[in-house]
Amino acid sequence: MTARRRLAGALAALALLGAGCSSGDDGDPAAQDSPSASASASSAAPSPSADASGSTDAAAAPAVPRERACYDLGYDAVLEPTSQAGPVACSATHTSRTYAVGELDLVVDGHLLAVDSVAAQAQPAERCPGRLTEFLGGTTDDLRLSVFRPVWYSPTVEQSDAGADWFRCDVIALARDEELAPLAGRLEGVLARPDEAERWRVCGTAEPGADDFERVACSEEHSWRALSVVDLADAGGDDGAYPGEDAVSSAGDGTCEDAARDAAADPLNFRWGYEWPSAEQWEAGQRYGLCWAPA
């Protein structure tokens, strides 16, 4: 027996917030469903980098950021459009690590683009997410089931005017809502190493959608775990428009129930949940749902 409830979802810049879910408990017709609270977010606005000496006067001497450089940023800082933070030693506490650096194309059809224009900022937004999968290893689904997220930065207008044309892709990890996790150890290929990847997986402190639910890394105390991904990319049709809540909310029921059954100790008595994106989250790039089960 499966009941359904719906949650209104709101997208916050890097948080994982919920749009809705269905859940079930096979073998117990009286079991209550509860919605989950997740989705994804994954972008950050451009920001500058300090030069190699740590100076923030990059307009006078703009420097290209270094790959594998580390930064100790707070959650609010990664939401800001610019940052004057300089790199720190990667052996020290840090929350952001550069995994790729590229060059912006600021001339289109013979016209010079402003570095803060939509067209210029779209370039790292298109390139950085795919490069994160290459850096962390594993599959796209492994990344979606992790607490890792890409953020990207580009020069300030002043730095651009002085000749800077780089963009920088950083990886961060969400320890819990609005809190970044310290990055430790070798991250290259970590999602392809199952034992190490587990600590970075998405878990919950309660059943998703419950009042006391909080999304946490699986290295923290938890009682629910994200099991698998339901890819909804084809549900939007040729124009990619949001297919509607009825369509996305029903797309994963069978898949999630099967995944939970396979993971359960008793295939006749188990609980499961399914999350789907809201229209706002869909527009922000969340084109998948998550299957959940008790840990």
UniProtKB/TrEMBL annotation:
Q: Which residues form the Septum formation-related domain?
A: 81-291
Tell me the organism. Answer: Nocardioides lentus
User: What Pfam families does its record include?
Assistant: Septum_form
What are the protein's UniProt keywords? Signal
Signal peptide residues on this chain, from the entry's feature table: 1-24
* Protein name as catalogued: Septum formation-related domain-containing protein
Against InterPro entries, the record matches this protein to: Septum_form
Q: Where is this region: Disordered?
A: 23-61, 238-257
